[in-house]
């Protein structure tokens, strides 16, 4: 699982996502230069940024939080559930039909 996740994201992004998973909501507050460090995770929808303070544009601060999608990825990764990780990342799952079911007759 570590290999699969580390191929999708660089090591720093994985470390930052793991770090955010440990933080309580709104615990991490950064300035604009700190916000840029999380830009990859924010752009991928794995983290969110919310402006917290604006001191007449002199000091602007943002709270960085892990998103629900980010939480699902970390939980699937830690549990070793490849299927759940692949579904969360949005990739097709080999062996399943378009509805996510195993092919074959269904019980009625």
Q: How would you describe the overall organization of this protein?
A:
There is one protein chain. With 108 residues, the protein is α+β, with helices and mostly antiparallel strands. The chain has one domain: Arc Repressor Mutant, subunit A. The chain is built from 6 helices and 3 strands, in the order ααβααββαα. The chain has a 3-stranded antiparallel β-sheet with strand order 1-3-2. A hairpin with a 5-residue loop joins strand 2 and strand 3. Helix 5 packs antiparallel against helix 6. The protein is elongated, with a radius of gyration of 18 Å. The mean pLDDT is 81.
What's the domain count? 1
Shape: elongated
Structural class: alpha+beta
SSE string: HHEHHEEHH
Unreliable residue runs: none
Number of alpha- plus pi-helical segments:
6
| Main β sheet profile | 3 strands, antiparallel
| Gyration radius, rounded | 18 Å
* CATH architecture descriptor text: Orthogonal Bundle
Distance between the termini: 35 Å
Percent helix among the residues? Answer: 40-55%
Q: Strand order within the widest sheet?
A: 1-3-2
Could you please say which CATH topology applies here? Arc Repressor Mutant, subunit A
Q: Tally of extended strands?
A: 3
DSSP strand content: 15-25%
Mean pLDDT over all positions: 81
CATH class: Mainly Alpha
Helix-strand blueprint:
Blueprint: H1 2-8, H2 11-22, E1 28-31, H3 32-36, H4 39-43, E2 47-54, E3 60-66, H5 68-79, H6 82-89
Antiparallel strand pairs: 1-3, 2-3
Helix pairs in contact: 5-6
Brief synopsis:
This protein has 108 residues and is α+β, with helices and mostly antiparallel strands. It has one domain: Arc Repressor Mutant, subunit A. The chain contains six helices and three strands; from the N terminus they run ααβααββαα.
């Amino acid at each position: 699982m570590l290999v699969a996740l580390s191929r999708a994201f660089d090591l720093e992004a994985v470390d930052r996502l793991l770090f955010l998973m440990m933080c309580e909501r709104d615990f991490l507050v950064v300035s604009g230069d700190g916000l840029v460090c999380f830009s990859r995770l924010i752009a991928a929808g794995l983290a969110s940024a919310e402006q917290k303070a604006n001191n007449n544009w002199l000091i602007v601060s943002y709270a960085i939080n892990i998103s629900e999608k980010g939480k699902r990825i970390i939980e699937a990764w830690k549990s070793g559930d490849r299927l759940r990780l692949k579904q969360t990342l949005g990739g097709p799952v080999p062996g399943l039909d378009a509805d996510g079911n195993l092919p074959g007759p269904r019980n009625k």
